[in-house]
Amino acid sequence: MLSYIFRRIFYTLPILIGVNLITFVLFFVVNTPDDMARMQLGIKYVTPEAIEKWKVERGYDKPLLFNLEEVSLGKITNTIFFEKSVSMFVFDFGQADDGRDIAQEIKSRMIPSLAIAMPVFILGLIAYITFALLMVFFRASYIDFWGMILCVALMSISSLFYIIAGQFLLSKLWHLVPISGYGDGLDAGKFLLLPILIGVVSGAGSSIRWYRTIFLEEINKEYVRTARAKGASEQIVLFRHILRNAMIPILTGVVVVVPLLFFGSLLVESFFGIPGLGSYTIDAINSQDFAIVRAIVFLGSLLYIFGLILTDVSYSLVDPRVRLT
Asked: In the CATH hierarchy, which fold is given to the domain comprising 102-324?
């Protein structure tokens, strides 16, 4: 098992390096430091002196890849690529335009993002699988028919509608929860109830249909017919046999998103004023803070690759044949 895990990690290293190189090209070759300075200072009426000052303050005045003015290792280390891209592999993200340390900001904002994402993930997973099994149990009946119509209706509505409707009904009209904001400790619970509810409801349609399809693919297989021939009830067939054998495709969509829970939800955090990584990313894009955007892109790719590794490992635990191949 350890050799399998190390092999998967080794395979993902070139992917992470490639993402880092593409990010560097996009931010420093396609969009040069001069372009970034003009976007920050204003495209019109900006002087070369102001551009140069902006670059010096952020360390963008150095050569991109190779510094001919330095000696020995300084030719490589005293460059934009080494300081802005290679340093990310040790989680040195530098400072934002407002002077705050990006790594420290990310650490402090992970907790609010997880406070939303984890309950949405756990409650949603339980609710989606339960309703999908219920529809499969009553397949080809009115419960299954109207359940499918409800799922399609939920899929057809934008998540933005759920946010606005939830704020209007539960906050402004009924005054059950605050319309936005965030608190410390247990006081944060009242601010998180509505975002969590919206997160679960907005993902219900597509997720329930997906789980229902997985269970229906398993229901007519040989081992199911064998279990029924031995006298097993429909409940035992569903929960003991079908659910267990459907774990591999379920793990595909579940385990891979676990690391990405740190980012929370971009829309939900922005509309509810929650100081998580989602709102941090939106604010960085709006303010054109390129250092934060680069850090978020790198961290997102790292977490996604980590999710892929978790998926492969979970595959090997559920089905040892994967590890043998």
From this structure: MetI-like fold (1.10.3720)
